[in-house]
Amino acid sequence: MNFDGIVSLLIACIEWILLINLLIFSKKDKTNLIALVMIALLAGYQTMEFIMCNLGFTQQIFPYIAFVIISYLPPLNLFLVLTLASNYKSDWKVILLFLPAIFFTIYYLFMISNFEVAKCTVLYASYHYPLGDLYGFFYYLPILISLIILIKKIPNSSDKKQKLILKVLLYSTIFISLPVVVGFTLMFFGSYAIISSMESIMCKFAFVYALSLGFLILYNSPFKDERNYFKYLSGYKQWNS
């Protein structure tokens, strides 16, 4: 029996259920919509990984789609952090955040024959794809910028609601960055096992981030007082809808 990708299926099911519930019960403002799209992308990637590793759909189009999905997560996360931390106004300049992802989406479309599912396990998958180092740079850069913004903003925030949300995002971002730290550390000692599967492993860790986004969405949604448990977590007594 093939169990490759089974963890991806489990995570995907939980994330899709989370997304459906949030779509039904949450407020649909800009902040929440960004977070909802991120959860959808995370669930979509896990679904693709299960399709490739367990169902055997390993043609080049499938890892390409998986990479397109995850390419938009870091810039979306940066957009979310900017929106929360500085009330970033959406205008044409927001496209600059997504230019690297758009570039790789188009470039990889013409290089799709170079995509390959190199390895599948129960927990993760690894891929062969072109411009791996350049892709990695532009993938991790928005995550690093998001971390810096969160670290600088949290001590200066006087809004308890905002501070709690930013702290949750900070701790979650640090958590999903752990594989990167471990991977590059092992790389200096000659082991490339984690680096070669970094995107897949990070998306597994990002399950915690999906839960954090769910918390953010619910905490940012005005429910009736008897149902609104989250507003008391930081001692925040007055709900600002």
UniProtKB/TrEMBL annotation:
Tell me which domain of life the UniProt entry assigns to the organism this sequence originates from. Bacteria
Entry coiled-coil feature ranges: none
Alphabetical keyword list: Membrane, Transmembrane, Transmembrane helix
Protein name listed in UniProt: Histidine kinase N-terminal 7TM region domain-containing protein
Q: Where are the transmembrane segments?
A: 6-26, 33-57, 63-82, 94-114, 134-152, 164-195, 201-219
